[in-house]
Predict the structure.
Amino acid sequence: MKKENARLKAVNGIFEICLGINGVKKSFSVKNTEFLLDALRRHGYKSVKKGCDTGDCGSCTVIFNGKPALACLIPAFTAHGSEITTIEGLGTVQNPHPLQEAFVEAGAVQCGFCIPGMILSSKHLLDANPEPSEEEIRKYLDGNLCRCTGYVKQIQAVRMAAKRIKNGEKRFRGKAS
Amino acid sequence: MNNIKYCSFPETPKAALAWLLSRKAEALAVAGGTLVAKTLPETVENFVNLKNLPLDYIKKQGADLVIGAMATFDDIDNSKLVRGWAGGTISGAAARCSSQLIRNMATIGGNIARPHSFNIFPAVLMGLDARVRVLSRIGVKTYLFSDIYGGDFKLRPGRDCLILDVIIPGKTRNWVCRFEKFAKTEASWEAYFTLFMAAAVKGGVVKEVRISVGALSPKPFRAQAAEKALSGGKLTSGVVDAAALEFARDLDGVRASEFKKEAASSLFKRFLNGI
């Protein structure tokens, strides 16, 4: 098949797709009606949360081909050939990402439902802009809604993480559950 | 999406158009895809994913600014070139579309191709006299943006033609512009109205003026009575008041409710007084 004619064909409404998730190549069977959010959850990536399912809340945020995106708006079959990062690929309990450390230390997590998405959005922000202002953080996280907090702690956490990443610090060591 | 049998990933606009024009399966081109979940027609069988098309450029071509159809709102918001154009109004408008997560995905091409009254760019592009390059079975042709949103344009972007890029004329580079989105919250996609205002003033005289209004009607429109009241005149308080009155009449044409008329007129006067 020529590259410019690449085309997937569904058999009985099922597409076979290949994609990279957290650096690991995966092959999924997905329905033609299924969105990436459901496909990921079905395959065990439970950190991708189902909130509004209409692209309003940001709970389903994943890093999709290098940019944070809403998995509930991406038809699963269109993810063929894409690179996806979920929070499972960011850090572990033993070796958390500085953003994960900072969110815990700043008390930015209450129910935790929105946090995976918020951390992934923050990660992309810090990758692009290592020293964001409060205004830039607020603007960048405007699609990740949190119903528990007033966003103050999350913004503190992102600033804390930015500082630590810049200084190469790593303080918190989580315990394996 | 029950009937989708194929998903194509064309690498060139020509290949994408070939899929669209193929009679074997009803096809629809999708760029950013933020509206897909809610608006994909059930009859579509071939989902033509445009993500691999090399149309995400933002460049200067001669005196004009050219924005590729696959440039996302985020790309436009962060482009130095766009920020320096028309006082940063184009990038400012991009930054005020919905949330960052949507801005990362949504493209300017999709914003034009899928007409929706709440879309941000149509009002802006109409006010900037933009032109749009379209690839169809007759080849590449450039249309005035206002013609694409007019009744005579028979092609259906994403169905039987593809938008390649948007050309913003060089004359607008130093225009004094302002974009206003009046909505429940900053991140609300559903604005009560959007307002794009631009003026070129020389020696206190208004040489060119554009007022376009979005979200009040299915398609954006130019407030022509208000533009007429301002063109060629000096910006005295009398002229501003008279133009605001005309502007309110323009809004009457789409049966805008009182509060929207009141708010839009205030923003319109604020813009003129700020020049």
User: Anything to note?
Assistant: The mean pLDDT of chain B is 93. The two ends of chain B are 50 Å apart (CA to CA).
